[in-house]
Write a structure and sequence with these properties.
Elements (H helix, E strand, L loop, with lengths): L1 E2 L6 E9 L3 H12 L5 E4 L22 E3 L4 E3 L1 H13 L4 E3 L3 E6 L4 E6 L2 E12 L3 E3 L2 H4 L2 E3 L5 E3 H11 L7 E4 L3 H13 L5 E3 L9 H7 L6 E3 L5 E4 L6 E4 L4 E3 L2 E4 L3 E3 L2 H6 L3 E2 L4 E2 L12 E3 L10 H18 L1
Parallel strand pairs: 1-6, 2-3, 2-9, 3-6, 9-23, 11-16, 12-19, 13-14, 13-19, 14-15
Antiparallel strand pairs: 4-5, 7-8, 8-9, 10-20, 16-17, 17-18, 21-22
Length: about 325
């Protein structure tokens, strides 16, 4: 059931799930299969599905999501669409366009801001499934320089290319070398760019051999590894990158990819145990957090995991939640 809460109203559920991506959906489906009712799924966007929803199926496009249970690589919307179909068979309450602004771990109380104002939700158990984001240039620790225009992240690329048909750079420089970086390079080439330059401080790409071979259908990036401290060049718009030892890479746009940071700001502000500077949650048995009744699922745990892994991880957390209840 979709909808929003009324302003200044208080609502109680057995379980509240923060985040409507694959992990959050997995938790909701898992709870339903275990007979746990009165579950609410809270999502800040206007649709559930998370990051995969930004990758629609299209002719000539680049599928980048591994569906291990079917042994194939598919488009994000295909994969998460099947998860949403399973969710639709449950009685989960879905609340869209609702941002959790504050948590009270001891009371298991959430403060939400939505189109109709502020409201509160309490629950017997709460699952944090807020995902992760890509590191900024400053957080990478080896990339400095001004924040000029034409510096973007993978999420911007998917918006420009997939939703608006706009190519953000014709001569792109890709920062990073993991699966996300190769996916971005492939999408840029499919969109009509020159072969991307790919640079990283690692001496060898962090993406596996199988993944690199898969993306060779679309891209063979001009790879430069072992890059030492470097600076983004350009006063108003990006023009290139120069390393401390004098190497230069010119382009008209840079994509900062990969190396995810868990979205644990809510947990940190609420007083839950979070390790710094990694921002990783301190976990107990069953992916429980430092306060009893709080759990975590998906990429908010740290590291990089595919959408289907996050879904099944959510299913596993649902078992721990049901045991707690």
């Amino acid at each position: 059931a979709k909808g929003n809460f009324g302003m200044n109203n208080a609502h109680h559920f057995k379980v509240a799930i923060i985040g409507g991506g694959p992990a959050g959906i997995g938790v909701a489906v898992g709870l339903a299969k275990r007979g746990v009712g009165s579950v609410v799924l809270i999502e800040r966007r206007n649709e559930i599905g998370g990051t995969p929803m930004g990758y629609p199926k299209k002719s000539g496009g680049v599928p980048t999501f591994v569906e291990w249970t079917r042994g194939r690589v598919v488009f994000g919307q295909e994969l998460v669409g099947r998860m949403i179909q399973r969710l639709a068979k449950t009685d989960t309450a879905i609340r869209l366009n609702m941002q959790v602004t504050k948590i009270d771990p001891a009371e298991k109380r959430l403060t939400l801001l939505g189109p109709e104002g502020v409201c509160e939700v309490t629950a017997d158990a709460v699952v944090l499934a807020a995902g992760a984001r890509e590191q900024t240039p400053a957080e990478k620790g080896w990339l400095a320089g001004a924040r000029t225009s034409r510096i973007s992240f993978t999420r911007h690329l998917t918006g420009w290319l997939e939703r608006h048909g706009l190519l953000p750079a014709s001569k792109p420089v890709v920062i990073g070398s993991d699966l996300i970086a190769y996916s971005a390079a492939a999408k840029l080439r499919e969109g009509g760019s020159d072969e991307p330059l790919m640079i990283d401080r690692r001496h060898r790409p962090s993406s596996g051999l199988f993944e690199r071979l898969f993306f060779r259908r679309w891209t063979r990036p001009d790879w430069s590894g072992g890059v030492k401290d470097a600076e983004i060049k350009g006063e108003r718009s990006f023009v290139g990158i120069e390393s401390i030892d004098g190497h230069e890479w010119s382009g008209d746009g840079v994509m900062v990819c990969g190396e995810l940071v868990p979205n644990t700001e809510l947990a940190l502000l609420g007083g839950l145990a979070v390790e710094l500077p990694s921002r990783q949650l301190q976990l107990a048995r069953g992916q429980g957090l430092s306060q009893p009744g709080w759990f975590a699922a998906g990429n908010v745990l740290g590291g990089f995991h595919g959408a289907q892994w996050c879904y099944f991880n959510g299913r596993r957390v649902a078992r721990a939640v049901s045991h707690f209840l």
